[in-house]
Design a protein that fits this description.
It comes from Streptomyces nigrescens. This is DUF4034 domain-containing protein. The chain is 66% helix and 1% strand. It is built from 18 helices and 2 strands.
């Protein structure tokens, strides 16, 4: 399927499926079922088909499961599993739904049960890293010791070494906001830089980490917030931005399921670094598809994306100059 769809005159929009049209069609059907509180056999079949279509593209499978789990709410994944107790897709969707529910305040989800669901799903398709990724996510939610994560991480890497969702879960766990530190994040990034192909699904990991560092600096207030922009002038950040700005916006360079999400990351980082001409190229490559994060850190995500898209994506040189000044002030 095409990664970048440039539709003239299309308004900026938030669509969870990004550019995956087939997934979008199924998502809308699932949301209609969720509003009715029922799940008919045709919708169950369409959910199974859209997940099965991914084959061994484990990265796209994780993307489709994540989108469907958010669309399905709490009850529908359980209904699907009840009807199909030996269906790996139904088990995985149920486990993903558990994770979303467990993040809510006063959740009654028992993550031990979720891990058992992951084990059953892993037994049904041993090559699939997705059950192990979800297992890792449960351990992250509970802030379990790193020794417990290490064995799960090895299982994931043996099946899909550069899975995007797995690396984002690991980054979250190792961040100073959760169970780790800046030093542990750097260790992870050093290992990634040493071996990851430039077009791997986890290509956006370093930019994600840098944006997280910028966010923590801004949230710290005072002198830390005033110096947040210096993050983008560090040699490691400049190298990451140089590479991504040069290659990523090119049609066909990024082909993984969340390529448009990573282009949103790139555009945001370039704006914060004051590199607005390059940000315009990244914004054009998104085709008007916005993502909630990281734009939501500055306000309403779609409003912020639309503001910058309108200002820089047209390639207005005056807008670029104004943007560079804005970038230095942030």
């Amino acid at each position: 399927m095409p990664v970048f769809r440039r539709r003239k005159g299309s308004l900026p929009r938030l669509v969870p499926e990004l550019d995956d049209r087939t997934l979008g069609q199924v998502r809308r059907r699932v949301e209609t079922c969720w509003s009715r509180g029922s799940l008919d056999t045709a919708v169950m079949a369409s959910m199974g088909d859209v997940i099965d279509e991914t084959g061994q593209d484990w990265d796209r499978k994780a993307h489709r499961l994540a989108v469907l789990a958010r669309a399905a709410g709490r009850s529908l994944p359980g209904i699907w599993r009840q009807h199909n107790p030996q269906n790996q897709n139904a088990l995985l969707l149920h486990a993903w739904s558990d994770l979303l529910q467990a993040r809510q305040q006063d959740s009654a989800v028992d993550l031990n049960d979720t891990r058992e669901t992951c084990r059953l799903a892993a037994d049904l398709l041993t090559a699939d890293p997705t059950p192990w990724i979800l297992h890792l996510a449960t351990l992250r939610l509970e802030r379990r010791p790193s020794t417990e994560l290490s064995a799960i991480w090895r299982e994931i890497k043996a099946r899909d070494p550069w899975n995007r969702e797995a690396h984002l879960q690991a980054l979250g766990y190792l961040s100073p906001d959760e169970c780790g530190s800046s030093a542990l994040v750097l260790d992870l990034l050093d290992g990634v830089r040493a071996g990851m192909p430039p077009q791997a699904p986890a290509a956006g990991l370093e930019l994600t980490a840098l944006i997280g560092s910028h966010q923590r600096a801004v949230a710290g207030g005072g002198l830390m917030a005033l110096g947040a922009g210096e993050i983008w002038r560090r040699p490691d950040a400049a190298r990451a931005l140089d590479h991504a700005a040069h290659y990523w916006p090119g049609p066909g360079f990024l082909t993984h399921a969340a390529a448009l999400a990573d282009l949103n990351l790139l555009a945001y980082a370039l704006i914060k670094a004051g590199r607005t001409a390059e940000a315009g190229a990244a914004l054009r490559a998104t085709g008007g598809v916005a993502t909630p994060w990281p734009w939501s850190m500055d306000g309403d995500a779609l409003e912020r994306y639309s503001h910058y898209h309108g200002r820089y994506a047209a390639g207005d040189p005056d807008g670029g100059s104004a943007g560079r000044a804005t970038g230095r002030r942030r």
